[in-house]
Amino acid sequence: MTLKKDTSTVVSIDAKPYAFSFPLKHTALLVIDMQRDFLLAKGFGEIQGGNLADVQASIGPTKKLLEASRRAGLTIVHTREGHVPDLSDCPSSKLVRQAAAPDNTQHKLTIGERGELGRLLVRGEYGHDIIDELRPLPGEVVIDKPGKGTFWNTTILHKLKARAITHLIVSGVTTECCFATSIREANDRGFECCGIEEATSGYNDNSFKCATLDMIHWSQGLFGFIASLQPLLDALEPLGNARGSSASTPPQTPPDFDGDLSITGLQKAYKKGLSPVTLAETLYSKIEAYKKVDPAVWIHLESKENVLEAAKALAAKYSNRSALPPLFGVPFSVKDSIDVAGLPTTTACPPLAHIPSASAVVYDKVIAEGALFIGKTNLDQLATGLTGCRSPYGITHSVFNKDYISGGSSSGNAVSVGANLVSFSLATDTAGSGRVPAGFNGVVGYKPTRGLISFRGVTPACLSLDCIAITAKNVSDARTVWQLTEGYDEEDSYAKPEIAYERHVNSIGPQARSFKFSIPPAEALDICSHVHRRLFNETVKRLQSLGGTLTPINWTPFQKGGELLYDGTFVSERLASLPDGWFAKNRMHLHPVIVELMDRVVARNSSAIDAYRDLQAKALYTRQADKVFSQSAVGTDVLVVPTAPNHWRIDEVLEDPIKKNSILGEFTHCGNVLDLCGVAVPAGTYPLAELAGTKEEGVLPFSVTFLGGSRMDASVLEIARRFEESFAPLS
Ligand code: TIU
């Protein structure tokens, strides 16, 4: 087995108390509170008696630092201090302490009162925003914080971990206040921080600033490092050029589309001047050609004219190629259970079709980031199934072989990405629908922790267990789409806020030389085909050679939790979202396998007592699974399973559709029942002949799924990414 080594660039600069080394891929620039209220005349800072000349000194150096960091491709995070208009997030300690001082002559106006730049430190006011020179570009993270520190009651820890950031270069105002507090907070969470001397300033004389910076690096680096700007600029400069991202004006002749549909690939191509119209033209030739290979991918395909029109509109809207939104011109598809305003949502079930007047939240979010909508894809009826063989719109097949199933229910999603017709796809996953088809088409299928991405505007399959899934070409792209689409939606009754108890950052960075992983016991793996078993054994060896320690776990909650999905009463929830009597009235219009499945559910005559027993069992197994993923010495970081135990031919599934389907879910069913997150990742291919026992030519893809506890997405994705990277061609 040849493993690709982690060759990511590590930069080292002179600093106090000793050299600061940072891995580029894991480093963000943090620009703190460069707001008009702190930096401009008549703002909050000046009103409190701050010396503006002193604080403005860092604007020029911070601009240089920001531009160099952008050219080098660092993640950029801006913060803004301020409060909601009713000040309910501002404690009285902050509101009145200074003004209440007996000798107060300085604090004439307090937070929320009206100054010349608007209400002081209130979100949405002119003074609250970042100064023009340092305005954030689309795609950069902006954190609104109510405190002096950046981590109190904000999503920053979650957002940094989600991007696998472990190192921070810190700048901004004021040195003595928010800059120092944020570094101390970050330090407690495990970040390596380096403050940049010239890129921070305060309202006091230099001795104050020196003392603050000294306190950060004293005692051999108690809180972090402090460096000068120039060595950092010198170190970043060649990286900007090497990445070819410094050209802000596109060349005269826009480049051709090179065929790379990955999001990062397209971002680079668009920056260099590729036209989204050129991309759309090429794509439509491919889509037309693929219709001959597989006519069942699309339920609705946008007309080429519409897409060219949308591409032209995008090009006109975003004429500055150095300030493109992250999904500018990135083509995507959606499962036809996800609403797009004005188009029918069929859920592959014509009697249920309706034309929504608003789009699903998740769709709107990717459109707002510049993505290019191509069409709505086929699925197993009512998003119920894992085979891709249960749709009145035809049976899709694996992009690897026309006789083999694509998997479902997000069948068209996975095929549209696997056949290179789009860059990513928005799918759903209840029993494994986002993972199994990804596995059968050699792409990544990521199901974040349920509730992180809004499910509003999606036709439910089993509402309390439904989850948005992202189909993508690689783990990084899946992570990018996740970060652009997540967000607490108070209109979604199953939504979860991003902020929760969080672990420190070690698990997602280069510090993590080792990790603990667990697998199902041998008896559970017996369900796999011979070749799936062989490749799963290879996966275990590969993970061990990447620093993974195989850690025994209690498999029972995963086994039992999975069984609850179809053997218990949860399957009845599939009828709960439909109008009363709908099933009986529409049975003759439904797919025969769905009718058979639902008939079996109805025939069980489950009682309310059964349902409550299942809810209690679900809670018990969820708690037991939580323990498996605990941070303690006996806990594991990730559970690794074959995405599917076997890859059936279409005719095999048609012969015995319910049983074959159920086997496919052996390692996915527990995912949403136990509130896990999971990502299916390609894990090599195998000769078709080895599975079929014949001399047939060709290969099929193998896939493994990395599962973690609720909200452990960031660490699960990072282990998955390292696994994926180990397959990359040696460079
Ligand atoms: N951003 C920041 O430092 N906020 C402050 O209130 N600073 C003061 O120095 N007062």
Automatic annotation (TrEMBL):
GO molecular function per UniProt: catalytic activity
Domain Isochorismatase-like: 27-207
Gene3D superfamilies named in the record: 1.20.58.1700, Amidase signature (AS) domain, Isochorismatase-like
Domain Amidase, chain residue ranges per copy: 287-717
Family: Belongs to the isochorismatase family.
The organism of origin for this protein: Mytilinidion resinicola
The protein's name: Amidase signature enzyme
